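#struct-help
A.M.: can someone run this one for me? Single chain, 583 residues.
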Amino acid sequence: MKKLIYKLSLGLALLLPMSACTDTDFLEEANPNELSTDNFWKSIPDLEMGMVSVYNTFKDRSILSTVEENHRSDLTYPGWGRPNTKDIYYLQTFNSASGAPNNKWQALYKGIFRANQVIEAYERLAPTLTSETEQESANLILAQARFFRGLFHFYLHSSFNKGSIIIFDFVPKEEKDFYQKLQSEDKVREFFLADLQFAYENLPAKWDDKDLGRVTAGAAAAVIGKSYLYQKDYANASVYFKDVIDNYGYALTDNIGDNFSSQTEFNSESILEIAHSLNYKSEENPGAEEQVSTNLAFLLSPVGGYRSVLPSLWLIDAYRHEEMDENDPRNYFQDEDGNDILKPYSLRASYSLAFIDDSLSYYQAPPYHRAKFNNKETAYYRKYTNWETGTTELDINPTQRSGINIRVIRLADIYLMYAEILIEGGTNEAGVAEALMYINKVRHRSALKMIGLSSGGEFSGQYDEQVYSAEQVMDHLMYVERPLELSLEGHAIRHLDMRRWGITKERFQTLSLEIYHGVDFPFIDEDGKKVTRWSSVLERGEHPVNSAQDLFDYREAAINFIPDVHGYWPLPNSEAISNPNIN
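D.P.: on it. Structure tokens below:
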């Protein structure tokens, strides 16, 4: 699928009907070398090529808006140098003219436009197909196109204007067609669920290896389940999530790091994944639409990258203090004398963030040899960087590129959402035992101490031996399990979680009162010299000597955030200005 996406020309799905410029017959002659709707969309290969352009749209970085969406949550800090920042998403001062909502809106509707072209072409072509094989092939293409049209409308519904957005179920033919009215959020939901349901009923559970990366019935079920959960429709969400869990062969990977690596793409845990590659388009600018790599690693990494996205202080502290199962051999390493030593951090913490004093290597060396850990920076995102395969991000040529696939939905996310369903958001005590079982599946994978009672537990190992109420399980999901397991992942997972739980304002206010400081880390460098990384290990509390060294987050966000203003992206001013039917 990667090769198909990257080798074909990706502009063909932007075709519009061509019109003659004069009455001269000569000028009205169609150029046989130029694609148009008059000489394209004539065959199943044409549909397939159009579908390629839809997949290409899915990799547009504005759709997930990973950086901006996470700056709106409690997971990230925008770049080096605390505590001052001008980032409008972190500060919660963005508005309808801001770049992120405008770019996201444009990218999603571009994807919808391309999907609609495939759908309309299918409707014209279907009656002419005579063989069963052709009909099956065309129907599979239609199911993929409707999946993406549904997904893109779902993303718009989740992101903008409290769900009241424009529905496009046709290809605009003239200028006035682009000016559509806003639809109610329930009508939008009904529309995208119909598309996703069609995809669910017509997509295969699995593709052949040559088609890895195409969307599946399991992906459709996962998105439908999410949409119901976002409405607190636990009954319907449960049906689709249980289907995902039971019927497609998905399984947690042995190592959580396999979900962020280029070496283990399209693995057993991946349900919806965006393919990237370094093998094509090297001549294109890293930010070009035609580019098939991603620049996320370059944005995150302090080793040859910009380090423009840092983990928030509370998140660093939470990872630092994750309790490990001390009976699990995965939590030990051998020192030079062959002694078993408990690792300083959990597997989940180590594969998510880079800490200066971690035992896991970082770009082929101890972390303190590779990253500077200065400017009050006490951890970096390890996720989605090329720390396993190079000594620096600059090893990749051309620079500012990465081929690591983005896993949009994975099984651990489904397990944790299903646990939330079982306790019905913290109100159903009868679901606690089974909810703990699914949470502990995720924790056991990373050799963490499991929660609840060991008696009746699925796994041997250490448990915290506490009796949990439904409300306590919900608190654990909100403030521990989901943010630490899924940090920086998916489509705005943390922001959407916080909003649907109604905790965003309170969360910013609580975190704004927390104070941290850095502790120095001395070591011997590669030349045998004594070196100290100042204030590079995060600790809770005020600095014991100098209050100017205190670290804190979200003080401006706690003041600026207004749920009705900042909970959703506003309608972009580019749409409001150009569309006379918006108001």
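A.M.: thanks! Confidence is low (pLDDT under 50) at residues 4-27.
D.P.: also worth noting: Strands lie at 76-77, 270-274, 310-311, 332-334, 340-342, 353-354, 380-381, 406-410, 516-524, 530-540.
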